[in-house]
Specification:
Blueprint lengths: L2 E5 L5 H14 L17 H4 L7 E7 L2 E10 L6 E9 L8 H15 L4 E6 L4 H9 L3 E3 L13 E6 L6
Parallel strand pairs: 4-5
Antiparallel strand pairs: 1-2, 2-3, 3-4, 5-7, 6-7
Length: 165
């Protein structure tokens, strides 16, 4: 088994959209208030570009796209970014891909000058939450003002630190 992580391309849009919606449905994240229903899901490659201080990565296992993860400014904020749409197909979970995707996104965010990273998720996504805890995210008692995902019930924030020079 070989894996590869790369920036999303337009040719990847349809399959990553399908994965986000399929995995979202697996956890009940369907309809308004949940990330899989965001309009950006239809064309992720156009909504995540370096010129927008954002990036979306896809993970391939044996050349098949199995999931992805993104990072983007939170609600137009220059200091706070958001870890977005980390979704993996069931057969690709437990391989460390979620960790690799998230770390790559967080390193990009730090390089873009963000000082904090926010995320929202669902309590039932326990393996994702365990990953976020290991990566240093701390729980918030409520969503950050401006959060679009009213259906989420877990909110977390991580301080991003620039490496010492």
């Amino acid at each position: 088994m070989s894996y590869k992580i790369a920036e999303i391309k337009q040719a990847d849009d349809a399959i990553i959209c399908e994965i986000i919606q399929k995995v979202g449905a697996e956890y009940g994240a369907v309809g308004d208030g949940f990330g899989p229903s965001d309009s950006e899901v239809l064309c992720m490659s156009q909504n995540y570009t370096e010129s927008l201080k954002s990036r979306y990565l896809v993970a391939r296992v044996d050349e098949k796209i199995v999931g992805g993860c993104g990072i983007a400014p939170f609600n137009g904020n220059n200091d706070v970014c958001e870890l977005k749409k980390l979704f993996l197909l069931p057969e690709s979970r437990g391989l460390g891909l979620g960790r690799k995707l998230a770390i790559n996104c967080l390193e990009f965010a730090t390089s873009q000058g963000f000082t904090h990273c926010y995320l929202d998720t669902l309590e039932k996504m326990s393996s994702a939450i365990a990953l976020y805890e290991k990566l240093g995210f701390k729980y918030l008692s409520e969503p950050l003002k401006g959060s679009e995902h009213s259906g989420c019930d877990v909110w977390m924030l991580k301080e991003l630190k620039l490496p010492a020079t």
